[in-house]
Amino acid sequence: MRQKIAAGNWKMNTNIQDGITLAKTLNDFAKNFNNNGKGIIIAPPFTHLYSILQQVDTNKIFVSAQNCGAWEKGAYTGEVSAEMLNSIGIKYSIIGHSERRQYFNETNETLYTKVKLCLKNSITPIFCIGEKLSERESNVHFEVIKKQLNQGLFELSPEDFSKIIIAYEPIWAIGTGKTASPQQAQEIHNFIRKLISDKYGVTISNETTILYGGSCNAANAKELFSQPDVDGGLVGGASLKANEFIEIIKAL
Ligand code: PEP
């Protein structure tokens, strides 16, 4: 179901005490937020997930993982499986963040495996796609996006695909302070929606939630989110400051 969402990716930030304080502040805000179908998601580090789930109203704030393992279980030291996440009550996981692709060599094929494992364990993947600066400058960004979708998601059945959230995150905009203009974001979101429509039909395409990510903040969120194909944001740095993230939620 298509939904307006503000999702905060905390990355490898906050210790448990600071993480709980941040989650509680957001929870206090969410209590009185007339969400009207709008979703608030936070993605703290693995170590925080269970404690934070106990501290927030999980009907108002959804807690997401930032990643999950590419195997069901077994001898994969340091990995956390989708089944483990499901067992503590996690409902979402970011999959294929560009930092995972860049620093951990995650390929579209590996990410497809992770997506399948999430779905098998009732976890909604927030699947990240986006081009590098060099790819945009050489005008191959549309091809890059198409390939990421074809290889990472488009083997899914229509039923499974309908459960996915997509986050378009141009890599050149992540953590750089350089935001895509609302027009640039709309152009790619519309392109993504068209690719989904070609593959799965217009109904599924119109029902897919597509978030924008990349230096989204309180000052630019409103204009980005008002684009017809932008359904909200996946927010990194600005989601670590409660007041700023609250302003972003209000911009939905
Ligand atoms: C992100 O990490 O998903 C992200 C969009 O980061 P930032 O908002 O800091 O650019």
Structural class assignment: alpha/beta
Topology order in helix (H) and strand (E) letters: EHEHEHEHHEHHHEHHEHEH
**CATH T-level fold name:** TIM Barrel
Name the beta content range: 15-25%
Mean pLDDT: 97
Strand order of the largest sheet: 1-2-3-4-5-6-7-8
- Main sheet, how many strands, which sense, barrel? 8 strands, parallel, barrel
Q: Given this structure, which CATH class is correct?
A: Alpha Beta
Tally of domains: 1
CATH architecture: Alpha-Beta Barrel
CATH superfamily: Aldolase class I
What is the multimeric organization of the chains shown? single chain
Indicate the overall shape.
globular
Name the hetero compounds present. phosphoenolpyruvate
Number of distinct helices: 12
Unreliable segments of 5+ consecutive residues: none
Provide structural commentary:
α7 (141-152) packs across α9 (182-200). The protein has a single domain (4-250), classed as Aldolase class I (TIM Barrel), CATH 3.20.20.70. Helices cover 44% and strands 15% of the residues. It is α/β, with parallel strands linked by helices. The structure holds phosphoenolpyruvate. Phosphoenolpyruvate binds next to β8. Residues 9, 169, 174-175, 213-216, 234-238 line the site of phosphoenolpyruvate (PEP).
